[in-house]
Design goal:
binds nicotinamide-adenine-dinucleotide; 23% strand; 30% helix; six-stranded parallel beta sheet; nine-stranded mixed beta sheet; alpha/beta; Dihydrodipicolinate Reductase, domain 2; 12 helices; single chain
């Protein structure tokens, strides 16, 4: 696609989708335009329209996904629909040659992981997961420092995304829709919302998970009723072994205090981490015997954006929502590779799914099959277990 061609974009799911509609409004994305919106909830589309074009540039509205995907109105789609239904609609888009930018998680079953990889391999369009947490100022800096080499090989890493929600924030999840179904958050297993914790570590180090073992902490069932959740395991911790022999501790979206994000790399020559409570800053240090004369270690500083700071700082998730969109549009134009691509995205889904199986089976470890291999995919296509209704019937 030429650098000057305007990319037409459809947004499916206008709650989270509204954030990306606003991001696309920042001055930097003049080469992209929202041409279609889809949500069964009309008021969510109303809320998006304010940030879209008007008159002949106004997006067309749909409530039916099939009509939306068949409209021919867009070359790229932003999938912000339900957590457990991304793979199905990503495959629908890829089959029509539509580029996909999909929210987390990429796929909620092993079968969908395999199906999604096959759909992406067959398509001329690109797939990128809309995983925004790698793209904060501090996480870019950790990646830069790790790649500079002085820290040495990573041995241990930690990623935490702690996002507890109040009973009030959770009240909608206990109201069934017209089909009698509850919201996905009601059933969400504690390892499933883990890409915000894991993905930055993969981005920084280029490591690949090959094995997972997990444990959970349970809340009091009575208190859980107050929060409307059906899953008593509220804190899920996974130990992920990587192809190069490192161990990552990943804690995704646990219901505990204190809310926030934290990332750390422990390497042979030193370490680097974000600063708790000061998430735009990093702390870096090297082993004492490796320091230059007079060198301060450890040292805390707030890095600068490499570029685009004036736009990124206007956008949510500490600028991550700006940069992840920039990566996606760059990938659509063929200027850079998507990250996370379909293999990394489904690998993170596998970690989450096998992590949950580990918890349910006495914390036994699971090897993570490599979805590059068609024979592995053939086997996994048969594994349709899901914790989310209606799939778990
Ligand atoms: N990356 C982030 O920082 C971040 C932040 C918030 C949410 N998310 C992700 O975004 C996704 C959406 O979450 P949310 O918080 O917006 O809540 P949500 O899942 O309740 O919203 C989904 C929206 O899609 C619409 N929708 C779903 N299926 C539809 C269908 N078949 N036809 C028409 N409309 C349909 C719903 O009406 C709703 O407005 C989730 O996957 C969530 O994990 C990511």
């Amino acid at each position: 696609m030429s650098a000057n061609k305007v990319i037409h974009i459809g947004v499916f799911g206008c709650r989270r989708g509204k954030t990306y509609v606003k991001v696309l409004k920042t001055g930097k994305f003049k080469g992209a335009r929202i041409t279609a919106l889809c949500d069964m909830n009309e008021s969510r589309m109303d809320a998006c329209e304010e940030f879209c074009g008007h008159g002949r540039l106004a997006p067309k509205r749909f409530t039916d996904p099939e009509e939306f995907f068949n409209s021919g109105l867009f070359e790229a789609v932003i999938l912000c629909n339900y957590f457990s239904e991304h793979a199905k609609y990503a495959a629908m888009a890829l089959a029509r040659g539509i580029h996909v930018f999909s929210e987390t998680m990429a796929a909620h079953t092993l079968s969908d992981c395999a199906m999604l990889v096959e759909a992406a391999e067959k398509s001329k369009a690109i797939y990128m997961m809309a995983e925004n947490y790698p793209f904060t100022k501090a996480n870019f800096e950790i990646k830069k420092q790790y790649e500079a080499g002085r820290l040495g090989k990573v041995l241990f890493a930690e990623g935490e995304y702690i996002h507890n929600m109040s009973p009030d924030e959770n009240k909608d999840i206990s109201i069934p829709n017209e089909k009698g179904e509850y919201h996905w958050r009601k059933y969400l297993p504690c390892t499933y919302y883990s890409s915000h914790a894991l993905c930055p570590l993969l981005f920084m180090t280029g490591e690949k998970p090959v094995k997972v073992v997990a444990m959970s902490a349970k809340d009091d069932p009575e208190r859980e009723k107050e929060y409307g959740r059906l899953c008593p395991d509220v804190v899920g911790v996974m130990l992920v072994y990587t192809a190069n022999g490192a161990v990552f501790r990943v804690n995704g979206s646990s219901y505990m205090g204190i809310r926030g994000n934290w990332y750390r790399l422990g390497c042979v020559n030193g370490g680097i981490e974000t600063v708790r409570g000061k998430e735009e800053s990093v702390r870096i240090g090297f082993n004492k015997w490796l320091l230059e004369e007079g060198e301060e270690s450890p040292r805390i500083y707030e890095p600068d954006w490499e570029s685009d700071g004036e736009f990124a700082s206007q956008c949510s998730h500490r600028g991550g929502d700006y940069w992840v969109m920039k990566y996606f549009l760059g990938a659509v134009r063929g200027e850079r590779k998507p990250f996370p691509d379909v293999y990394t995205a489904t690998l993170m889904s596998e970690v989450a799914i096998y992590g949950w199986r580990s918890i349910q089976n006495g914390s036994i470890p699971y090897d993570i099959p490599d979805l590059h291999d068609p024979k592995v995919r053939e086997e996994l296509l048969k594994d349709t277990y899901s914790p989310f209704p209606p799939f778990n019937n």
